[in-house]
Amino acid sequence: MSDRERQANPIGTAWSIAGAARLGAAALGVKLGVVLAVVVVLLGALMSLFATVVVQARAVFGDQVLAIPPEQLEVMVTVQERYGVPWQVLAAIAKVESDFGRNMGPSPAGAIGYCQFMPETWAAYGRDEDGDGVADPMSFRDCLPAVARYLLDHGWRNDDLEAQRRALYAYNHDWSYVDQVLVIAAVYGLGGNWQGGLLWPVPGYYGISSFFGQVDEARGLAPHTGIDIPAPMGAPVVAAAAGIVQAVTVDDICGLGITIAHRQDLATVYCHLSEAWVTPGQVVQAGQPIGAVGSTGLSTGPHLHFGVLLAGRTVDPLLFLEV
């Protein structure tokens, strides 16, 4: 495939927490100082939550989209200890190449096996790692160390993102493949704590009709688990951050909804859509259109319900949305 320049993710416009506090004060008819005090308390609670959450990779996000077979994960961790290539990268390659051995080819180009090596490349890097007397490209025990050796031979460095990208490009000459592997690796936990803000999910429409935790009769007095953003029917909804589509669902409350898994136990939820333009397991980039505003489920008019889940708990999206 032809080389192409890496394109930066679009930068969306969103509110700062202070801006949200001003809007909240006006909407609720209270003093700004009171709202800011509440924000400080919420920030303190959020920091406490981060302190108690174990900062490690999560291979499963509540369904099977990203589940790694345990025996394969064990080998990935062993390979990391031996070669230094992060297990998250090995897992991402295994997911993209063969879905953890569920589709081992051959590909149209002739690549075969668990990690889809070309025969001549396998001849150079494949070894009998499991002691059965055969260097078998169908065996994850033989393949995963071969992937690590290949990446290291092609310049992989854990402290250099561009070196990582070049090594992955050598493995598969397609920059979209490189981006896909790195996004999946990030979802598995590569790269440390969640960094940076979330993009505003409905570009051009910045009002809020219902805030997080707000109680009203429409929800049966249950606290609101996200924010509601009014927008015209069919207005594009975009992914707030890079990640993997965890689920596309339909129910009586959320209506047509999408959940996207990000890194470090963070997920975003998009409800009441009229259309979904993505499918479970699909990699998405920040700012990528994923669906259209609608009024499905428990809804009184066109809007997006936008939620954020941290370690499976709902948190205020306004603490994550940044300019």
Structural write-up:
- This protein has 323 residues and is of the alpha+beta class.
- It has two domains: 17-53 and 198-319, Distorted Sandwich (Glucose Permease (Domain IIA)), CATH 2.70.70; 70-187, Lysozyme, CATH 1.10.530.
- It is 32% helix and 16% strand.
- The chain has helices at residues 17-28, 32-52, 70-83, 87-98, 119-125, 140-153, 161-171, 175-187, and strands spanning 227-230, 236-238, 243-251, 255-261, 266-276, 283-284, 289-293, 303-310, 313-315.
- Strands 1, 2, 3, 4, 5, 6, 7, 8 and 9 form a nine-stranded antiparallel beta sheet that branches.
- Strand 8 and strand 9 (313-315) form a beta hairpin.
- The chain is elongated.
- The two termini are 36 Å apart.
- The model is unreliable at 1-28 and 34-63 (pLDDT under 50).
Helix amount, in percent? Answer: 25-40%
CATH topology of the largest domain: Glucose Permease (Domain IIA)
Radius of gyration: 22 Å
Distance between the termini: 36 Å
Identify the CATH architecture of the largest domain: Distorted Sandwich
Uncertain stretches of 5 or more adjacent residues? 1-28, 34-63
**What portion of the residues fall into strands of 2 or more residues?**
15-25%
Largest sheet: 9 strands, antiparallel
- Would you tell me the overall average pLDDT? 80
H/I helix tally = 8
CATH hierarchy class name of the largest domain: Mainly Beta
